[in-house]
Amino acid sequence: MFRFRKAVLAAALLAVAGLAGAQGASKYPGVGRDATPKEVAAWDIDVRPDFKGLPAGSGSVAKGQDVWEGKCAHCHGIFGESGEVFSPLVGGITAEDIKTGRVAKLTDTSFPGRTTLMKVPTVSTLWDYINRAMPWTAPKSLSTEEVYAVTAFLLNLGGIVPDDFVLSDKNIAEVQKRMPNRNGMTTNHAMWPGKEFGKGAKPDTKNVACMKDCVPEAKVASFLPDYARNAHGNLAEQNRMVGAQHGVDTTRPEGKPGAAAPAAPAKPVVKADAAGADNKAAQALLQKNSCTACHAMNSKLVGPSFQDIAKKHAGKADYLAGKIKSGGSGVWGPIPMPPQTLSEAEAKTIAAWLASGAAGK
Hints:
- The protein has 361 residues and is mainly alpha-helical.
- Among the domains are: 58-176, Cytochrome Bc1 Complex, Chain D, domain 2 (Orthogonal Bundle), CATH 1.10.760.10; 279-355, Cytochrome Bc1 Complex, Chain D, domain 2 (Orthogonal Bundle).
- Mean pLDDT is 79; it is low at 15-25 and 256-277.
- It has helices at residues 2-24, 37-43, 61-71, 73-76, 95-100, 116-119, 123-133, 144-157, 172-176, 226-229, 279-288, 306-312, 317-326, 344-355, and strands spanning 58-60, 166-168.
């Protein structure tokens, strides 16, 4: 019996040693696996300011205009000047800025805003961001030619390249020499160590970590009076719904221990008729087709809320299905909705749900 137990123990130790050896080949033993070259290539798509990582290709300003009007204009405007959804991309630069590489209006406090072409110092930043994140509803769906073309069209809107220009990996470094703010930013700030910043660089601040005599808990000394909280209207309805910071609901008093917030107004009960769409199926299609990127259930986002659409076009399922497929503008404002690629059946399901009241879950 002793020999048998000894043999079993030896076999177990050999198995554990083999497993440890296999795991030891990884940098983090026991945690996942090494990514394959194909997986790394799909992830490693960034383009550096020296254009390392830029794929070969080209795209014309004319091609970029077609792509822009179909996939970009509904958020950025036909000429990149719209500020309704995001900050304007174009404006505030002059021929002199392109010549000097410094945007004069960046130091003009009377100028109303800062556009993307006023600030961005490198054309690689534009190419890289468009390639990875645009369009908003379908990131990374543009082909390499389309990314070159859209970048060329945006630069043309800013007067940086001419109308007949074709941007490519061969001439993008020359275009960089015309970026309006190419000399307006610096790395000489010593935020990171390294000889590339020079010996004279100094940090902007000289913070010193203090880990003693810390205040255990911050105490609020004053509150905004309840009567003044909503003096300028509900902030939650005034801020854009895109971005990380949203306005607080100022129709409710600030939470205090023992104080109950007033009950929210009851939502109207919408009864669906016999032909009403299945709520869960319709809302699943909204997520699948990225409808919720521009529309919220009961508040305006990029476009009108689903419930506002339902009230305006109650019972008009056929009309709504057609509008979903064809897109358009002018009914809810100047921002156009591009034609959608969902199937006829999916469009009818969503349209029936809207026509019957757009009931929630």
